[in-house]
Structure formats: structure tokens, C-alpha cells
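quick one, two chains, predict together pls
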Amino acid sequence: MSDYAEPIERLIDEFRRFPGIGIKSAQRMAYIVLRRGHEENERLCRAISDVKEKIRACSRCNNFSDSDPCRYCGPSRSPETICVVEEPNDILAVEKTREYHGRYHVLHGALSPINGVGPSDLMIGNLLERLREGEVKEIILATNPNVEGEATAIYLSKLLKPIGVKVSRIALGLPVGGDLEYADEMTMTKALEYRHEM
Amino acid sequence: MSDYAEPIERLIDEFRRFPGIGIKSAQRMAYIVLRRGHEENERLCRAISDVKEKIRACSRCNNFSDSDPCRYCGPSRSPETICVVEEPNDILAVEKTREYHGRYHVLHGALSPINGVGPSDLMIGNLLERLREGEVKEIILATNPNVEGEATAIYLSKLLKPIGVKVSRIALGLPVGGDLEYADEMTMTKALEYRHEM
């Protein structure tokens, strides 16, 4: 006999599917769902279905957005620079510096042979298409300063430099082994300032 | 202009309503919802609605259950002892010891004047009703070993002893300031063994 009634067990399992949510957090969340009103639970489910319905990947940069092209692909941003990041959230870390006025490209991942993630799993194809348009002068590689991010930066640099575009890497002012998402504004500003050509 | 498109912002807000889920966790969860298939999101929402539909508080002990009376209020458990806990999850901490064969009573909270939680906010009324049936010989107060739990135990002991029932408190083998939910089996076993009459 399980410790929980089946519907509670099933809800705990569903919450545990989110990375970072352990058994204790999932149990607490399930009990909150049980305690609070139907209205609040329906609002959560409506938010889940709305986000899937209204949010799409931008056809240019792959950022999640409710418009296509997204806000960062519009005419207010310089088309001469593309900052390549792993995840949509990483865009916010760069935006926080208020120092960058170019465009973005979201890879939706990083190379990781151990986890079976190869170049074909990343959104590299439409990055090459954007370069063919000829407006781009510099690519800033802002992948994470960890093993996967570095490998991805080296791979992209070897791929892109023969095309004749300037390729730079954000400075490793970010603590090595860390995550772009947690960078503070100053560290991120330094990292942009000291980018070096590859 | 917000950092996120409105539907993403709204979903992040909904996840943040769960205590213990911070901004970073909520963002990650929202992106997972965006990335994974409709089917997985629907399964989560179905689990949420099922749990609200199928799980009720047991009319005797207030434990969340898919049956009424719940599994711990059945004839397999001794009606002579009632173990009073703050939350349904705390029952599992006591069950893990395999040393307790009596019944339970869930208060759904603890006294906390600072948070405006008084005796009338706890499920004390139907505990008194159960005592009136005359089968109960001992009440074990297994509220948490922190300020609120101690205050609740003292309040209940003063309320219950005049009725003529034996009232005991689990031993403070549990680390003071801790939480019943995190107790290991041995500590919990000691706490049951060394309960003292109040």
C-alpha cells in the first residue's frame, strides 16, 4: 500500500517532473493544491494552457515570445550584432546590463556529448541563414561559462569564422562553472566589455 | 515593459504562489511548461483537478483521503490512542516508525497568534467529539517541536486533561526548532518512546 491516496501520489509525481522540485517540495505543493480553492487551481491550469497557446518561438532568434518577430528582433535593435545564448532566460541577464543594443539568437541548449546533445539538436541552422543576409558584423558568444557552454562557443567559432564574420566570446569575468542566469549586472557588464575575438 | 511576455509572466506568478518556490524555480518551471508537449501539461492539470475531486478530509480525523473514514480510522487501528498532528504529512513521519498502531487527529495547523491563527482555526471541535465517545484512553500530542507546536500542545493539554484522558507529549528527541516532516525513523521512534505525561 502506498503512503498516499492514488490521486495525491499522482499529483506529487507530476510536480516532481520539474527539475529542481524534490519530493518534499512536491508534497507541499500537492497539499497546497488540496487546501486552496478550485478557483486558484483553475487559474494555474489556465496559465499553463495560455502559455502554450499564445507563446511561440520567434522565427528569427528562437526566443519565446507572444509576437513574431519578437521584441528583440524589431527595428529598435541593431542588426549588426547577434548575441548567441543558450536559453531564452539568458537574454534577460544580458538585457539587465542595459549595455547591449544588438539582437539575440537562442540555441535552446548547449553541446553535451554525455547527454547526447549534438550540433543538430541546437538551433544553429537559422543562425547561419541570418548571417547569409549580410547585415551581421559581429557574433558575441554568450553561452554559459561551463564545460558545455565553452564547447559550444568553440564549435560555433570554428563554424562561423570562415564565413568572415567577427566572432567574440564574453569575458570569463563570470565565475567558471556557474550559470549565466545567476549573474549580477556588474559581472555581466564586465563580461560584455572584455569580450575577446576568437 | 515587463521582461516577459504576459502569458509567461502570469504562469511564473502562479508557480510563485507555492511557498518555497522562488523566482528562479518558477521561471524554470514556466520554461519547462513551454518546451514540453501539450500532453504532459494536460496530465498535470488533470492530476490537479482529480486531487480536488477525489480527495476529501476524513470526517473523523481530518486526514486527506480518498475514503471516509480514512485508512487510519479503520478497525485495524486501536481506538484507544489518538496521535494529534499538525498536518496530514506528519502522519507519514509517525507511520515510518512502525511503532504506533493507534489512530490520528489532524489539526490542519498550529496556534500562531503572530499569524492570526487561534484555537477556532484548528480542527479541535471534532477531537472533543471523538473523546466524548469514551473509547480513547490516551492522547499523544505530536505537534512540531517549535514555538507554535509547543504552544498548541500546552493549549490542548490544558483543554483535554480536565476531561480525564491521559495526555502525553512526544519526547523532545526531535531537534528543537525543527519540523516533524523531516524527522528520521530513529529520532521519531525515540520521540514516541519517551513521551511524557502532561
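The mean pLDDT of chain B is 89.
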